[in-house]
Request: fold
Amino acid sequence: GWFTDRYGAAMTAFVGAIYATLVAFPGYLWLVLDPSLGTAYLAVGFFFGIAQGFTGANINLFCANLFPPRLWCQGMALSYNIGVSFLGGFAASISQALFQVEPLSPGIYWSFMGMVTLLA
Reply:
């Protein structure tokens, strides 16, 4: 909230994407090397929670700023739902399939998705 109010939704999404890119692989590596309950709470709850706070908390505001007010309903409905259904909806399945190939692959995938977000 405070960061978005001070710097705007675009900068908050940008910082969140940088954070997700930098933390996804090391966080996942930590989970693979030490699969304990404490590690899960710290890695998922804290590190990935911060990424979710930066990216997920202001996504609607960020999307709304992409369109003029008269197109908010159509623009947000189309862009947000396509993005969430294809990238977010299949993310768990893609991660599971990658894990079967190489246990560290989901971390690489999430870091790559962070880079895609930075480039977009």
